[in-house]
Amino acid sequence: MSAPTLLVCVGDLMVDVGVEAPALERGGDVDGAIRLGPGGSAANVAAWAVAAGGWARLVAGRGDDLAGRLLAAALEERGIGLHPGDPVGGASGAMLVVMEAGERTFVADPGANLRLGEGDVAAGLEGAGAVFVSGYPLLRPPGRAAAMAAAGAAGRAGVPAVVDAASWPLLTGGAGEPVLAAAALAGTLLANRDEAAALAGRPGPAAAGSWLAERVGTVVVKCGAAGVVVCAAGRSPAPVPAPAVTAVDVTGAGDAFAAAYLLARAGGADPPEAAGAGTRLAARAVATRGAWPDPLPSGGRGLSPPDPLPPGGGAEYP
Questions:
Q1: What are phi and psi of 37, to 5 degrees?
Q2: What is the pLDDT confidence band of residue 317, given thresholds at 50, 70 and 90?
Q3: Of all residues in the chain, what percent carry a pLDDT higher than 70?
């Protein structure tokens, strides 16, 4: 029996503060629901990879504060490795997610994630069988070199790798160029409809994805309940349907998709087959409240790669 794939996720580790209210009263008080939990796109992908039966390592920064200790404990509980293992000075990253009248608004503070360096990435990629690179550090100058190095190393090693487009408002007016450059190195871009349209400058998931694929190689455009469209350079777009599911919370669905897609690709699936695996795990995510899978049973732990890294865990990196 072969060892599970080690998925290395490069990006952010954040404390998510979720706020749900029918409407906010500017300058006043309202009743609502508030929840606190671990998050960050790369951390979410790692959590869903473990839930899907893989191994995961997160390459991200955390601060030497209470939030950093809580985040490290949450990752350990799920069997997710964290690199670098030591915290840096300063505050951990935090994300405020406000659900108001059916609309989501985000406020992000990257915190210690801005301290991630190229050397951290090089060491963190050791043994990877697949690599996820979040677009968020690519869109911030302090983290760009490290994220770009991760995409380039994965591409050179020939392991399945994707760059996620992050968030459409951050991609307009040519601002998404670093994401496209990194995706071209990795060979695959993941984007939702709005992100693909912002990067391509044209509407329609098939049209935008096909245009982007001429530069990147493979583009997977996520269309929510309508499924995904897989676009490869020189080929017709391939639609992949999504399972029907009653949505409880769409937070983390795209991250679950990325985890399953990469694990399937590492297992030999072609992009449309891997996209099908992605839609199935994403369907599980939208039926789950919060960005991470349901908590483990009492006393349970996720799969943890042994130390040293598992034999045959993937390519070696320069």
A1: -165, 170
A2: very low
A3: 92
Q: Which residue has the higher pLDDT, 150 or 105?
A: 150
Q: Does residue 231 contact residue 210 with C-beta atoms inside 8 Å?
A: yes
The pLDDT value given to residue 318: 39
**Nearest to residue 167, comparing CAs of 117, 111, 78, 95?**
95
Cβ atoms 46, 58 nearer than 8 A:
yes
* 134 and 140 Cβ atoms separated by less than 8 Å: no
Gap between the Cα atoms of 280 and 256, Å rounded = 9
Cα separations in angstroms, 16 against 36, 60, 110, 140, 292: 6, 15, 11, 19, 11
If DSSP codes are grouped into helix, strand and coil, which group holds residue 254?
helix
Q: Considering the chain, what is the average pLDDT of its residues?
A: 89
As a whole number of angstroms, the distance between CA 188 and CA 268 comes to 15
Q: What is the per-residue pLDDT for 101?
A: 72
Sequence-ordered strand ranges (E) for the chain? 6-10, 14-21, 33-39, 55-59, 80-83, 93-100, 103-109, 130-133, 161-164, 188-192, 218-222, 228-232, 238-240
CA angle (237, 238, 241) in 5-degree steps: 135
Instruction: DSSP for 217-247, please give it.
Output: SEEEEE-GGG-EEEEETTS--EEE-------
5 secondary structure, DSSP code: P
